[in-house]
Prior knowledge:
The complex is a heterodimer. In chain A, α1 runs parallel beside α2 (51-64) and α3 runs antiparallel to α4 (97-116). Chain A is α/β, with parallel strands linked by helices. Chain A is built from nine helices and 17 strands. Helix content of chain A is 25%, strand content 31%. In chain A, the strands form three sheets. A six-stranded antiparallel beta barrel of chain A has the order 12-15-14-13-16-17. Chain A has a five-stranded parallel beta sheet with strand order 3-2-1-4-7, sandwiched between helices. In chain A, strands 9-8-11-10 form a four-stranded mixed beta sheet, with no helix packed on it. The radius of gyration of chain A is 22 Å and the shape is globular. In chain A, β1 (2-6), α1 and β2 form a beta-alpha-beta unit. Chain A folds into three domains: 2-191, Rossmann fold, CATH 3.40.50.620; 216-277, SH3 type barrels (Roll); 279-371, Translation factors (Elongation Factor Tu (Ef-tu), domain 3), CATH 2.40.30. In chain B, α5 packs parallel to α6 (163-170) and α9 (261-282) runs parallel beside α13 (369-389). The model of chain B has no long low-confidence stretch (mean pLDDT 94). Chain B is built from 13 helices and ten strands. Chain B folds into two domains: 13-258, 3-Layer(aba) Sandwich (Aspartate Aminotransferase, domain 2), CATH 3.40.640; 261-389, Aspartate Aminotransferase, domain 1 (Alpha-Beta Complex). The longest helix of chain B is centred in the last third of the chain and has 22 residues, at 261-282. Classes of the chains: A alpha/beta, B alpha/beta. The A-B interface holds A 28, 31, 33, 36, 38, 51, 54, 58, 67, 69-76, 100, 103-104, 107-109, 111-113, 116-118, 156, 158, 160-161, 287-289, 331, 333, 364, 366 and B 315-316, 319-320, 322-323, 335-340, 385-386, 388-390, 392-394, 396-402, 404-405. Chain A: Belongs to the MnmA/TRMU family.
Amino acid sequence: MRVLAAMSGGVDSAVAAARAVEAGHDVVGVHLALSRMPGTLRTGSRGCCTVEDSNDAWRACDLLGIPYYVWDFSERFKEDVVQDFIDEYAAGRTPNPCMRCNERIKFAALLEKAIALGFDAVCTGHYAKVITDADGNPELHRAADWAKDQSYVLGVLTHEQLKHSMFPLADTPSKAEVRAEAERRGLSVAKKPDSHDICFISDGDTAGWLAEKIQMTPGDIVDETGTKVGGHDGANQFTVGQRRGLKLGTPAADGKPRFVLEIRPKENKVVVGPHALLAIDELKGIKVSWAGLPIAEVATGEEFDCHAQVRAHGDPVPARARVTMVMDDGVSRQALTVTLGEPLRGVAPGQTVVLYQGTRVLGQATIDSARSLARPELP
Amino acid sequence: MYLDHAATTPISAPALAALTKVISRSGNPSSLHGAGRRARATVEQSRETIAAAAGAHPTEVIFTSGGTEADNLAVKGLFWSRRDADPRRTRILVSAVEHAAVQDTVEWLAKSEGAQAVWLPVDEAGTLDLEALKKELDDGGADSVALVTCMWANNEVGTIQPIADVVALAAPHGIPVHSDAVQAFGSVPVNFKESGLAAMSISGHKIGGPVGVGALLLGRAVALTPVQHGGGQERSVRSGTLDTAGIAAFAAAARDVTENLAAEGARIAGLRDALIAAVRQLVPEAVLRGTDPALDPAGRLPGNAHFTFPGCEGDSLLFLLDMAGIESSTGSACTAGVPRPSHVLLAMGLDEDTARGAQRFSLGHTSTPADVDAFVAALPQAHARAKTAGMAGHQSSIQTASTGG
Lengths: 379, 405
């Protein structure tokens, strides 16, 4: 196969490319330029698109004896990931930009360009597994190393996208193994630290970054009874489940810490309350997609057993889910209702819920609302 | 097949012979003993050769590490010395299509040294607007101009600039003119003395010499503040131990190209014209940028062909041609490898999308008809694919979770 290896400059994508080469594929390395003004040097574990990272990817390709190119996706990234991130926060939701980048950049813009240029697949260093059945239909599964498993952030990929995806690190027992392999292969990135945080916010200060992009208006912080307990500089910088930085003047009646329960952008209000009220057990999801062919219950609308996961490194909980059809702008679209077997805390609209059966990823939806079936609506 | 001679051209046989001969010898040309004298003799003989090739006096040749250093030395050095002589002189009149070595230097002077950059417009072929220059000198006040800098020939689209006219406009005001002649020298007739320039940059590896050596031709009477201080070599304008072997090879290449200039120029222009004709026949929508050699043969570098391919990304085309063994360029190399729309094409009035479809094919002394044939064979498929890939970087047709139904 002609394989395009997306090379971030990190150890995972370098080893993934090496394995693709070893498997006999015709591999070309491509680094995605996601910023028009890349930094020169990488600082700590933040950011991932500096010239130094590009050079690391380049050196890995030199060692593997494969061609290397840099492709500019900075405009698409700005529109589809960065602006989306700002818009979601402005609407009071909590987006996952890495997921969005996988959905719209790596496995859409890049993949499409790759296919048009004659490639069969895009290969990345994600820890997840694609299993293809006898008819050529792909299924997405968790990686062997549960601790590094990244199937959650790939849960957004569709049948068409998965058909052209290659994740050579799928069966690797651990990240340590990948580092050891990089060392053995002489890849200079073997000891490079993992990247964390949001790559386009270089100092890691998300609230400060957002404050420059979103019109923040001071407003009230109210408690679960609707009583004003404090003020804020702008509701959009908060996230459901957040405890720090509330600066509440009035202490809670029970003296216990309070958490953000809800953000109401229209009223410019932040609702806080005790930890117990964070628990939710029903999710409504929109923008539903299926990772491969949908299971039978999707078409019939029957409820099905599954596990639900709402963050990249969160434990999945048993759940029952059901697909309904709703009208949206005159178009009939799938919506998802997920009833959780165990409550989850700190679930924010905008986050993604990924559904699993065993190791298999069924699909995902963007959380539109989350509530506790027992708890009355907050005033 | 190598179609990127404007980036660097293979070393010529005389240059390689000179390089290998001299590099095995020791000797610092500044030393006073035998080895030093021998090295110095080589340098001085090379200086005379290069001076003869470029129409300069030997003392006007200041050796540097290449074109970028020569440009920095000329632009910074002239700006500083002219401003120090008269603090009103803060303006730099500079063409909008300069190589980064000049463009970035001027921007740095504006940012850090109080210079005022005046970017002179070009027409749609990339030729400097002389009226604009005249207006800046007459109306803007010649007294406030530190220097004028305009390249002899453009590295992307190959347009040859009216240097004689630029000098004629600046000379009555006593304003020094610098020209980056890195692309022109060795390709078209260049004569420093006849040009009336105060300073002119040339480079070794663009003419068949090695990378890492170049020169600034600097008029004897021109005052220039050095950038690099040290042992006082090169008229105290450029300190640093001279690269005897590199200089000897540079001189050998310079003699070789200038001796054969007329014949080689015609031969390379013939290949280039065949390439242009083939592109126009195979991809009728492709647009030749710069001067059309059919209309103005002297207006374009003989080795340069530059097109924009509508609906294609230059980097896709580069990739597909590279995979087919054809080495071309989107226009100007970038260290980060990130293709940006060319400032040259934007200055010529192109919009960003059109500018993104740029591809430069440049020929040189090793080019043969077989190179053009191989390119012609590879182009149709590469172009068709690049067009399909089209603006995938702008808009995706893959249905995803948030765009699909």
